[in-house]
Structures are given as structure tokens and as C-alpha cells.
Write a structure and sequence with these properties.
By secondary structure, the protein is an alpha/beta fold. It contains twelve helices and twelve strands.
């Protein structure tokens, strides 16, 4: 077997993305080159690594074994580069940070900007995911640091408190709900929803909560940011579910009513998670400390 680091990085990216096309993009390779490399890896090994279908790719047993070793080799290589970079002075490397929608949009921009300004040789690969997905990915070593809702079972991961917030309903001041001070999420399902785009972790979370109520989420329009949601809500397009911090900020400049959600899951204690059995690389540890201090 003649696997090089590019092969291992590509295979990891394909496995994480569930698609050769998306994995090639992550590895900055042309699709044809990526496909050729994977076919050559399978030829060298003498066994299939991926099961291909229209929906994407899935790992074979051999693929799972290779992925485990690829992650270990790439992690050790990154650690070697970091240790050697220390001789040149300063931290250097990349940290992969996974966060849910609330943390990503409301609480990460400021501490991340301060961290990146203080560590110009460190890059942060930031990805939005559902909290339960993040826990699994951190446990598998796919990410270095995760930020999840405190209600999620984190297993044996090491945790640190991050921020507190809660979800609320926003409505135009002339909307029938505007006179309410508190309500359950099930009642929100009677109205048109202004939400985030389908791929956002929060929108998928709310869709799941609606399904548990046996009701559809009547998404009238889906947007890319909480600010855009609040603007269309204020214009009377529908109601929205957003973090309380967002709602109070938006209400200062928009004609919005803010209604508390009574569901237990509405209160969001955000938690930093890392693997408990692995010493973080210095720049990843520096980011954890920065997030906790911020």
C-alpha cells in the first residue's frame, strides 16, 4: 500500500462529507483526480473502501478501518507540524470547531475574532451542525472542539460551560400573538413560520420538534440569518423562533413583540465539549481558553 497524506486527507474528507464530490472540494482536488486516487487506493489495498450510490457513498468495513487510521496519522502529522512550528515562535495550525446555530450566530463571532487576531498563524475551520451530531463527531475525532446545547447527552466528553440563552417567539406588534407573554411551541404551529434555511441545525431541530407534535412546520419562507427572520416577521410575513438575545436586539429597531416559550428545551445552556482522553494541541487548547474567558 502506497497511501500518502493527500490520499488519507482525501479519504477522510470524503467519509465526513458522504460524497466524493464534496470530499474532493474539501481537499481542493478536482473530482476526476479524487476519484482516481480513491480507485487507486482500493486497487492497492485489494478491497473496496466505499459503497457508491446515487445518495452518496458509505464506508465498507475496510473503509471504516482505514478511516480510523487515517484520522490518527493526520492528527499525529498535524501535531508534528505544530511542535516544529514552535521553534519558529508562536502557535501555528488549524482547529476544527463544530457549533450549533445558536452558538454560531449569537456568541462565537466576537470571541473568535479576538482569538484569530491574537493568533494570526492559526486557522479555524468552523462548521454548523446539530448538537447531537457534534457530540458524535467530537467523540470520533472528526472535530477538535464542539459547542452544543446543554440538554444533549455528551457521554464521556469533557465539558466546559459556555453561554446561556433561550429561544423565544417573535411576532409583529399587530399579530394575534403579540398580546401573549408566554406560549408553548405547539401553539406556534398554528401560524406561518419565518425560519432559517433548511440546512441550518436550528431549522432541522424545530422541524423535528414539530414532527413530535404530529404537526407540520408551516415554513412560509426560509432565510440565511436571524436578523433577516426578524425583519420579515416585523413586516407581518409570519412568526419566528429566534434566540432571546437576537429578539431583544432586533426589538430595539423593529416593531416586534417577544413571547417566551414555555417548553423545557427553549432554555439553552451552551456547553463546550472536547475529547476527555486526548490532550488538545496547544492552539486548540488556546481556543478553548479563549472561548471560556469570552
Amino acid at each position: 500500500m502506497r497511501f500518502d497524506l493527500t490520499d488519507l486527507r482525501l479519504f477522510r474528507d470524503v467519509a465526513d462529507a458522504g460524497s466524493i464530490t464534496a470530499g474532493a472540494e474539501r481537499s481542493a482536488l478536482a473530482l476526476a483526480a479524487a476519484s482516481t486516487r480513491i480507485r487507486q487506493m482500493e486497487a492497492d489495498l485489494g478491497a473496496a473502501l466505499l459503497t457508491r450510490s446515487r445518495a452518496g457513498v458509505a464506508l465498507t468495513p475496510a473503509g471504516h478501518t482505514l478511516l480510523k487510521h487515517a484520522r490518527l496519522v493526520l492528527s499525529q502529522t498535524a501535531r508534528m507540524r505544530e511542535d516544529l512550528a514552535a521553534f519558529a515562535g508562536g502557535l501555528s495550525g488549524e482547529v476544527r470547531l463544530l457549533a450549533n446555530t445558536n452558538a454560531l450566530t449569537e456568541f462565537l463571532p466576537e470571541p473568535l475574532s479576538l482569538f484569530l487576531a491574537a493568533h494570526p498563524q492559526v486557522n479555524v475551520d468552523l462548521e454548523e451542525r446539530l448538537s447531537d451530531e457534534i457530540v458524535g463527531l467530537i467523540a470520533e475525532g472528526v472535530g477538535d472542539i464542539g459547542i452544543v446545547a446543554g440538554t444533549v447527552d455528551v457521554g464521556r466528553l469533557q465539558t466546559y460551560p459556555f453561554r446561556s440563552d433561550r429561544f423565544v417567539v417573535v411576532a409583529a406588534q399587530n399579530h394575534p400573538l403579540a398580546a401573549r407573554s408566554r406560549m408553548a411551541f405547539a401553539e406556534v404551529l398554528d401560524f406561518d413560520i419565518v425560519g432559517l434555511e433548511r440546512s441550518s441545525s436550528l431549522q432541522r431541530f424545530l422541524t423535528g420538534k414539530a414532527a413530535r407534535e404530529g404537526r407540520p412546520l408551516k415554513a412560509r419562507i426560509q432565510l440565511r440569518s436571524f436578523d433577516a427572520v426578524c425583519r420579515l416577521v416585523a413586516a407581518g410575513v409570519g412568526v419566528g423562533v429566534v434566540p432571546q438575545t437576537t429578539a431583544h436586539r432586533a426589538a430595539q429597531t423593529m416593531a416586534l413583540a417577544v413571547i417566551e416559550l414555555t417548553d423545557d428545551w427553549a432554555l439553552r445552556e451552551l456547553t463546550i465539549v472536547v475529547r476527555a482522553d486526548e490532550v488538545l494541541r496547544p492552539y486548540a487548547q488556546a481556543l478553548v481558553e479563549s472561548l471560556r474567558a469570552g
